[in-house]
């Protein structure tokens, strides 16, 4: 069976839908494991996308370091709580990184659920396998390590 081709518009539509489903969600982006922008919801300009790419790369590095030091298993999700917002960062099975910002008034549990749902269904939006950077450099850390036999 041939897998259907997913366009950038399809990913944009999926990210817009994610933002629209949760009250208080402000934007969502998907980055490749090496920080390249794969897709973004509306209202994400080039400057914000570049800033998020750098920010998320740092957060992922800290999260992966925590998995090694704390021996807690693979990195699943990072949540940054600020006084007026939350930032959710989660790695998909394909290695892409979903980042979503919600306002402080939003229901955090609803967003955590929606992020987990999106990550679980990301293959529909990201059909190309992306090797997570951590697996490529160190062999067995990060989200992909737990899925390997």
Q: How would you describe what is shown here?
A:
The chain starts with 7 loop residues before the first helix and ends with a helix. It has 149 residues and is of the alpha+beta class. It is built from five helices and five strands; from the N terminus they run H-E-E-H-E-E-E-H-H-H.
Low-pLDDT regions: 1-7, 141-149
Radius of gyration: 15 Å
Order of helices and strands: HEEHEEEHHH
Q: How helix-rich are the residues, as a percent range? A: 40-55%
* Spatial order of strands in the largest sheet: 2-1-5-4-3
Largest sheet: 5 strands, antiparallel
Beginning-to-end CA distance, first to last residue = 25 Å
Total helical segments: 5
* Structural class by SSE content: alpha+beta
Give the tally of β-strands: 5
Quick check: average pLDDT?
A: 80
Apparent shape: globular
Strand content: 15-25%
Summary of the model, kept short:
Helices cover 42% and strands 20% of the residues.
Topology at a glance:
Elements (H helix, E strand, L loop, with lengths): L7 H14 L3 E7 L5 E4 L5 H25 L6 E5 L3 E7 L5 E7 L4 H13 L12 H6 L4 H5 L2
Antiparallel strand pairs: 1-2, 1-5, 3-4, 4-5
Which labels suit this protein?
disordered C terminus, about 150 residues, alpha+beta, disordered N terminus, 5 helices
């Amino acid at each position: 069976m041939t897998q259907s081709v997913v366009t950038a518009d399809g990913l944009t539509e999926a990210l817009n839908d994610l933002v629209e489903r949760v009250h208080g969600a402000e934007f969502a982006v998907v980055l490749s494991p090496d920080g390249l922008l794969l897709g973004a919801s509306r209202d994400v300009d080039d400057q914000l996308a570049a800033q998020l790419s750098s920010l998320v790369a740092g957060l992922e590095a800290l999260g992966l370091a925590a998995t090694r030091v704390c021996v807690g298993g693979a990195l699943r999700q990072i949540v940054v709580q600020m006084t007026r917002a939350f930032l959710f960062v989660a790695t998909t099975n394909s290695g892409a990184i979903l980042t979503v910002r919600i306002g402080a008034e939003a229901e955090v549990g609803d967003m955590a659920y929606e992020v987990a749902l999106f990550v679980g269904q990301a293959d529909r939006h990201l059909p190309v396998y992306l090797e997570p950077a951590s697996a490529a450099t160190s062999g067995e850390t990060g989200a992909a390590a737990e899925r390997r036999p």
